[in-house]
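ok here's the first one, seq then struct tokens
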Amino acid sequence: MRAICTDRVACKFLKSARAAPDTHFIMQDKRSKDTWAVFKIMGEFVEGFERLRPVYPAVSVFGSARVKPQSRYYKVGVKLADKLAHAGFSIITGGGGGIMEAANRGARTGGARSIGLNIKLPMEQKPNTYADTSLHFNYFFARKVMFVKYACGFVVLPGGYGTLDEVFEALTLIQTRKIKHFPVILFDTEYWEGMVRWLHDRALSERMISRKDLKLLHLTDDCDETVQIIKRNFERFRSQYEDEMHDPETP
């Protein structure tokens, strides 16, 4: 269901973006394609802001789409999201299968808002059925903004390149102070400890990062500890999160 747009200027952009021809079928003039792309990009931001504003506070949960329901990673994804939901947090995922589905499922059983931010891919990601609110993006960068803007924590379960991309995007934004600090939690020590060790032994030892940068990551196997880390940080910085959420310059 489309959101009802409440801002007159934003509505004009959204209407133009929805009406814009698919960039694959615009005349071959590249400049024309670029112009229409601007409207499509604006449309994705406007719709994201309109539909996600009510979900705050939320936690963004990441992990592999390749995980099957019988996997221990899937089961812990459901359990963890359920606990976060009972703690009062909405759950945002990438909207696909695997751990994303598990987290949306846990959000639903926990009675929280369950949000899926789907991305259109050549292999066509199929939205999972546990997301109560589903958005569909053409552009990764617009989607990334939505993961960050309404979240007060990232929980990262085992995953591949896409999951790693989200982890280091968040760390970069926090390190450079483009966003306020929030917890980035790597869940499952056995899976993540090799990467954390490499960061310590190579990146830190060669002064590519600082000890303060390394401390931006939390490593745990405990669902209750994860919830407590996020709750403590949220209560401590609640007013800053709320100010930042309404700041148009925040990613």
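and now the second one, same deal
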Amino acid sequence: MRTVVETFETIMSYPPTSLREVMHLLEREHVLDTIAQPEGADTTTADPRAALRDFPSEGVATLPALLSPERAAALVKVLDELAARGLPPVFAYALDAFWEPLARLVPVVEGLVGPCEVLADGWAWNIAPGSGKSGWAPHRGTYDPMRQPDGRPGLVNVWIALSDVTLDTACMHVVPLSKDPGYPHALARQPFDTSHAKAYPLPPGDALFWDACSLHWGGPMTPAATHARAAYSFTLQATSVPRLGGFDAIGDIKNMSLIQRLDLIAGQIVRYGMLDEVAAPLLEWAELLTALRASRLAHGAKAG
């Protein structure tokens, strides 16, 4: 079977010019190889005590110092470099440095929900001050009250602050499960009751995580904002519950090829790109790459 790159070469004549430019950027110039990543392991030590105290009852907790402030600042520079090359922040998932915190994060989450796996589900943000943009509107990560046999959550969303995230720079808001009238039997009921939400300003390097059933959203970038809101996310699922439909688990992250990482990024753009105003050519590229991946998987299943 032809590789994705070879397939791109054969179809370069028919997509719109803008889509051809995206393909040229990603597949021929190897732009991701030119991004300067921080070297070496981060030396921070995450303190899980607050998470262990608050999460079981409220479904939301903070994890201080998942990254050091220096590492967080270095990752913000990466997001800025991506923007300078015309790529949205989600392309950060092609780079090893953005996966490195999982070595500290996964044990904390497993201490709360048991053995879990990382899903191919995440997004990154770099919202400029004065852009008129805000975080995403109120929603839940799942509208199915995913619970393990012992009652613990089956799905956890994690949101990592890379910049100083304040009330003026679109900090996250979460409704604690104990105060959510829609939980657990009316998760999809509209309009959402946001009256009991709590705002979660975070310094660079801290993480916020919540039961994916929790109602959550990003606040606005107010006129008082003086810097960008930079952050990114992961989703972890307990292995004791059926995997969330439409999502793959990520295995050996370090050995993922560039093509596999671009497949992952494309899938996230198809899923979430409209929420973040991703440019039309990149949406077209993501749809194409996602279709090619589906074709490869179908071919492999038949061959097997």
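notes on #2: The first helix runs from residue 4 to 11. The chain has one domain: 35-256.
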